[in-house]
Structure formats: C-alpha cells, structure tokens
Amino acid sequence: MENVNPNISQLKLSRLTLIAYGFGDFASNMCWTFIGTYLSVFYTDALGLAPALASVLMMAARVTDAIFDPVFGAVAERTHSKYGRFRPYILFGAPVLAILTVVCFTRWGSGGTLTAILAFLAYLLCGLSYTVVNLSYGSLSTVMSTDPDDIAQLNSYRMIGTNLSAVILNAVTPALLIFFSGSQKIESHSYTYVAILFAVLSLPLFYFTALNCKERIHPVQTKDKVKLSETVKSVIKNVPLMLIFAIQLLAMTAFFGRMGVLAYYCLYNIQNPALMALFMSLPSVATVIGIFATKNYIIKVGKKKMAAIGYIGAAAMLLIMFVVGQTSGYSNIGLLLVLNTLYGFFCFSFPIPMAMVTDAINYGEEKFGVRSDGTSYATVSLSTKFGQAMGVSVALAIMGAMGYVANAHQSADALSGINIATNLLMGILYLVCLIPLFFYPLTEKVSAKLIERLTIKRETLDFNSQGFNQLSDTDVVVRQNGVENPDEKVVSHDRVSDVFAMADGELIPLDKVQDRSLTGHIIGTGFAIKPTNGVIVSPVSGTIINIFQAHHAIGIESDEGLELLIHMGIDTSDLEGKPFDIAVTLGQHIDAGMKIADVNLQQLYEWGKGTDILLIITNATRIKKFVIDQEDTVTSGGSIGRAVLK
C-alpha cells in the first residue's frame, strides 16, 4: 500500500471502542459458529445428502475460501472510502452474510444432484462473504492504534466476544431447534428459523462494531504505487509474520482438533453424554475468565512470555488428563472436569499471536517499505482455516488407526486412541508452539524501538515523494472577495466544520508553496499561510490528537470529525523542536482561535527553512466539499472557509 498518513491519533482507545470491537466476533459467530456446528447435520438429515458427499462439498468450499483470503486482503488494503479501508466491508458485507447464512439452511430439493449443487454454491458464497466481513473486522485491530497495550486489549476483547458467543450459542441453539420443531425430533424448517433469528440479531452487533471502531492508520498518496507482487514478497519475506503463522497453525490445529473429537471422549471414554455440555462449555467460560485476569499483563510481562505460559499450561492440563485416563480410567469425573476447565483458562494465550501481527506488520513496513496490513492479516488467518481442516482430520485418522468403530462398544485400544487424539496429541502440539515462539524476535523492547523509528520516519514528511488525498477541482470552491458562491451552499443535514486562519499573514494554495527543498508542489487538500509573526492558533474547535516528536506539526480532529495536520515550516523535522514552543497537550479540547504553538521565525530563516504554515486535511475521503477564500491577507482566527463532510 502507499505511505502511511503521519497524522495518526495518539489518544488511547475508549472502553466503548474495546467493547464494540469485542461484539464484532460475537456477531460473526452468530452466523458462522451455527454453520460450523449444524450445517453438516442439516446436509445429511434435512437435505438427504450422503455424509461422504457432504464432506467433499464442504472441504471444496473451504479450500476455495482459503485461497480467497490473501486475494481479498490485498483488495481491502487498497480500498479508499469515507469509512476507511476495512469498515465498508463490514457495513455492506454484513447483510449479505446474514442472507447467505439463511440460504445455507434453506431446503433445496430432497438430496439429488441439483440439491448438492445449490447447497455447495450457497456454502461457497457464504464462506466468501464471511471472509469479506470477518477478515475486514480482524484487520481493524491493525489500523485502530499504534499503542501496543491498545492492540493487546483489542484482541483480548475479541476473544472474550468469541468465547461468550460460544457459551451462549451452545446453550440456546439446541433449545431453539426443539422449540421451532415443536417436538424432540428436529425438523428441517427449525434450522431455517434459527438461522433467520441469528442472522437478524447479528446485524445490529456488526453495525455497533463498525460505527464505533475508527480506522486511524490509513494511506496517503505517493507518486509510485506499490505493486501487488511487491506486497506478496514483503509478506512472504516477513520472518516474524511467518513465525506467527506457524504458531497459530499449531495452536489452532490443537484447539479445533480437540473441539472436534471431544464429543467422542465424552461418549465413549467417560460414557456419559449428559456431561458433554459441561465439558464443552466450561473451557469457554474459563477462557473468558483467563483473558480478563491476564489482559493487563500481556504488555507488562511480555507477549512472548505470556503466550508461553498459556501454551505450557494448556499442554500440562491435557497431558495430565491423558495420563489420568490411561492409568486410572475415566471414573473420576470431578478431576477430569477441573483439568478440562483449567485447560480452557490457559487458552487466554489465544489473542496474543493476533496482537503480534501488528508488530510484524510494522517490521515489514520498516524493512521493505511496504505496509501490508490487510494481506498480512489474511495470511495469518489462513492458519486458522488450515488448523480447522487439519486438526479434526488428523485426530480422526488416529482414532481409526487405533480401532475406533462408530456406534459400537470400543476396545481398550480404541479408547486409548480417542484419549490420544483428544489430549496427548493436542498437548504435544501446544508444546511445539514454543519452538517458533522461541525464535520470534519482536519483544516489547524491540517493538517499541521499531515504532519509534517508524514514527520518526512517518513524521519526516518528504513533500517531494508523497502527498495526501486530494479532492477534485469540482469539490473545491474558491470564494471571490469573501462573497458566498452558489456552489458552496449546504443542506440542513450536512455536517459543516468551519475553518479559521491559524496565523496572521498571506493565504496561499498548497500548490503555490515555494521553497528550495521542494522540487514540485505539495499534493493535498488545504492551504498555507506565509506568517508575519510566530503565533499559531487552532483553525477549528476540536481535540489535539497528535503532537509530532520534533514538535514541528500538530494533529487536530474537529468536533465534526475533520482531521487536520498543522505543519509549521518546510523541512523542519530535523530541528529537534528548537524553534517550536507547543502550547497544548495531547487529548486537550481547544476552541478555534486558541493558541496552540509559538514558532521562532527568525531561527527558521537562519537555518534556511521555509516558514510557511501548512494546513492539510488528512481525511479528505470524508469531505464532500471544501470552501476557501481566494488568496489574500488574513488575520489569525479569522474565518477563511469550511469543510462539508459526507
């Protein structure tokens, strides 16, 4: 993708934003968990498809879906809209996902070829729409903040939403199916009704997430566009990202593999189907507790250390369960339940690798000059899909090799096979996670230095090689002699942000800024002022969202949502803040006309720096029209224009 907009809000994410993000996975699971749990049963029992055929259809759809992941990631990160790059796919993709979820549980014929084809197409399209929505949702965490603690909290709240939805859906879905069937015998139409209910309920949750989770990291224009091939190379060569992929592949293979065969363990080893709900739901509850208990320590202790603790703890619980089963049998239900629940607690480690993804993306941006957030996240998400496919398959293969026979009394070897597949194998996989984790190089200290270098690089604006999103000429209205132009009229529901002069001096367009450091003109939407004194005031009423490290620029978000970058002088990032005296603090609310800085213009002259004060709109994709006075002498705090937001 293009260079990153340096005017990134440095404000901490609010609790509302964190909660809203957690609801995103809750909404996704209302559709996808129901599909993953019940669609195969619907195919065989309601549509009359043979189990082997249903398995082939679902596997083919998932393979196609997996291939689509990195393709869509590359498309999403190149999207430009007023909602950002990823949020539009949640806002407009969620209704499509909801509709296709219902279509998946709609009865097509009675098991013939046409039924199989339509079922396959419905599942394939639903899987693709889920990728569009969920991949966009997951990628949001990589562009909402640069603060490591915020990123860790986002992924923790996501896993809380995931596990809460699992507990609730596992509890209510069987009861709903029975309710809509009118008897203990599940009828085909009940699946459709439950799908409609979950699909409808998911929509307000998706919108709650999309409307409260704002993208802060977004691209700006560059003269040279990044080719797709360069993006792919930057991802493949990103060693930390590939290590995260390996960690997630092993962990997700263990998690989904165990979840897929745990029912066999309850049915044949414990021999008590009534306990199945407890064995499946208690770990999810414990995971929520574990995440709440540890989420504030992920950065303090370190992501690598906390992940290692989680994997070792999960492995230990499963290995003890295996030994207990092999040596003492399965009659001590209380002990097995406790171990199984503690296993769930140690799954607090699951959001940690996803929090590492942002560190790996930052690494790739510095090393290769390309920030591939969407493609990188899509690549890691492949590990989850591969883990889902491989985990159950390997576990079932082990059970079959050990003599498992469906719906029959199991031999001692078969019971050992189930125990191995459910506990021993998965415990070993969690321990193997420690190998790529050991080689993962981005500790908190290394990542902090990396972010610091990236910040300096982003804030060293080279106007010769980069610019900002620019409105078309028809969307910029120039007032003549301060007289209102008919083209600038707004309607009652428009949001308007009035803009005032930030200094005394001469108002000039950005493309007429002259300086010996510039080989061309500045690309962007805004204006500049040649100041007659060094007092700089706020051009809008709003909040200070960013103060550059060299104090040469200040980011402001107006109360109406207009994001502005006030850049003081040309090529001034190397002055270490000496000519600038900042009069505001991060997060401070200011009124238009309030002083935000003093600039020593004499020092800028002496050091051969341009003195123009630039105002650049850094979220121009959200602007419908920008109105500005013609070139003229202006007074600090005087009205000179307005922006009409979409």
Overall form: elongated
Class derived from helix and strand content: alpha+beta
- How many strands in all? 15
**Which stretches are low in confidence, meaning pLDDT under 50 for 5 or more residues running?**
none
Biggest sheet descriptor: 8 strands, antiparallel
How would you state the average pLDDT, rounded? 88
DSSP helix fraction: 55-70%
Strand order of the largest sheet: 10-6-7-8-12-4-3-14
Gap from first CA to last CA:
24 Å
Strand content: 5-15%
Specify the number of helices: 18
Radius of gyration, taken over Cα atoms and rounded to an integer in Å? 28 Å
Structure in a nutshell:
The chain is of the alpha+beta class and 646 residues long.
Write structural notes for this entry.
The protein is an alpha+beta fold and 646 residues long. The protein contains 18 helices and 15 strands. An eight-stranded antiparallel beta sheet has the order 10-6-7-8-12-4-3-14. The protein has a four-stranded mixed beta sheet with strand order 1-13-15-2, with no helix packed on it. A hairpin with a 5-residue loop joins strand 6 and strand 7. Helix 2 runs antiparallel to helix 14, helix 8 runs antiparallel to helix 13 and helix 8 packs parallel to helix 14. The two termini are 24 Å apart. The relative contact order is 0.11. The mean pLDDT is 88.
Please specify the SSE layout and strand pairing.
Blueprint: H1 15-46, H2 51-77, H3 87-104, H4 113-140, H5 148-181, H6 188-212, H7 228-236, H8 239-269, H9 276-294, H10 298-301, H11 303-328, H12 333-346, H13 351-368, H14 373-401, H15 412-432, H16 434-439, H17 444-459, E1 476-479, E2 495-500, E3 505-508, E4 526-531, E5 535-537, E6 542-547, E7 553-558, E8 563-570, E9 580-582, E10 589-590, E11 595-599, H18 601-606, E12 610-617, E13 623-629, E14 632-634, E15 639-645
Parallel strand pairs: 1-13
Antiparallel strand pairs: 2-15, 3-4, 3-14, 4-12, 5-11, 6-7, 6-10, 7-8, 8-12, 9-11, 13-15
